[in-house]
């Protein structure tokens, strides 16, 4: 059965790093936020709680800085080429991110995916309030959105490829026949049927 839908995580999958860590560096709290991110991605901390906690620490950051960082992120080697190759095969390619629309929305036209589902940093008068909302707030959000997308597109789990690196990708792994753990935490590798250890997304094309 041929694949029809591919869903990629953004942070540390399509993009080389964690967007929120780049924001935190601006405030001099990079290490603190990175530690919380690691706990969440390894499955030791609830994703929703970790997201609220980390975004809360960003309160006061200028939104123009957020936008500038979001538009200058380092994309993962092979991201653009892999998405183009999958689309050439007729797949719909989507990005699900527990990160932020400022980054995924900007990257959409550069990397070439069809749609992005992510979270929105709340700002008032150009300053982050420390609040966040959106499509990907919970540990189950990616799986929930994937099932809805499959229903809309008429795509089965066996026709679906998912690719991610952390614990919040586990929920979408439950609804896909091809499950790629990309430079991933052990908790995700355990549920994958394709494991890639190098930062080169084109390796996916050799394994499907």
Radius of gyration: 16 Å
Strand content: 15-25%
Overall mean pLDDT = 96
Q: In the CATH hierarchy, what is the superfamily?
A: HAD superfamily/HAD-like
Q: How many separate structural domains?
A: 1
Number of contiguous helices: 10
- N-end to C-end Cα span: 11 Å
Instruction: Provide the structure class.
Output: alpha/beta
Report the CATH C-level class: Alpha Beta
Stretches where pLDDT falls below 50 for ≥5 residues? none
- SSE pattern, N- to C-terminal: EHHHHHEHEEHEHEHEH
Coarse morphology? globular
Describe this protein's structure:
It contains 10 helices and 7 strands. With 208 residues, the chain is an alpha/beta fold. It has one domain: HAD superfamily/HAD-like (Rossmann fold), CATH 3.40.50.1000. A 7-stranded mixed β-sheet has the order 4-3-2-1-5-6-7. α8 links the parallel β5 and β6. α1 crosses α4. It is globular and about 50 Å long. The model has no long low-confidence stretch (mean pLDDT 96).
How is the topology of this model organized?
Elements: E1 5-9, H1 19-26, H2 30-41, H3 47-57, H4 63-70, H5 79-88, E2 92-100, H6 101-111, E3 115-124, E4 127-134, H7 141-153, E5 160-164, H8 170-173, E6 178-182, H9 186-189, E7 194-196, H10 203-207
Parallel strand pairs: 1-2, 1-5, 2-3, 5-6, 6-7
Antiparallel strand pairs: 3-4
Helix pairs in contact: 1-2, 1-4, 2-3, 4-6
Keywords:
globular, 7 strands, seven-stranded mixed beta sheet, single chain, 41% helix
Give a brief description.
The protein is built from ten helices and seven strands. The protein is of the alpha/beta class and 208 residues long.
């Amino acid at each position: 059965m041929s694949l029809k839908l591919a869903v990629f995580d953004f942070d540390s999958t399509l993009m080389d790093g964690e967007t929120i860590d780049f924001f935190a560096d601006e405030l001099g709290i990079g290490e603190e936020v990175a530690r919380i991110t690691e706990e969440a991605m390894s499955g030791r901390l609830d994703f929703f709680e970790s997201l609220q906690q980390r975004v809360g620490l960003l309160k006061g950051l200028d939104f123009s800085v957020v936008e500038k960082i979001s538009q200058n992120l380092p994309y993962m080697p092979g991201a653009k080429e892999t998405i183009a190759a999958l689309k050439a095969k007729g797949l719909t390619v989507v990005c699900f991110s527990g990160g932020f629309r400022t980054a995924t929305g900007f990257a959409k036209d550069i990397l070439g995916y069809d749609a992005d589902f992510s979270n929105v940093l709340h700002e008032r008068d150009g300053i982050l309030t420390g609040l966040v909302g959106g499509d990907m707030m919970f540990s189950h959000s990616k799986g929930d959105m994937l099932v809805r997308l499959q229903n809309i597109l008429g795509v089965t789990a066996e026709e679906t490829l998912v690719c991610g690196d952390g614990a919040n990708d586990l929920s979408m792994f439950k609804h896909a026949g091809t499950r790629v753990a990309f430079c991933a935490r052990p908790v995700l590798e355990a549920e994958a049927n394709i494991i890639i250890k190098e930062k080169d997304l084109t390796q996916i094309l050799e394994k499907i």
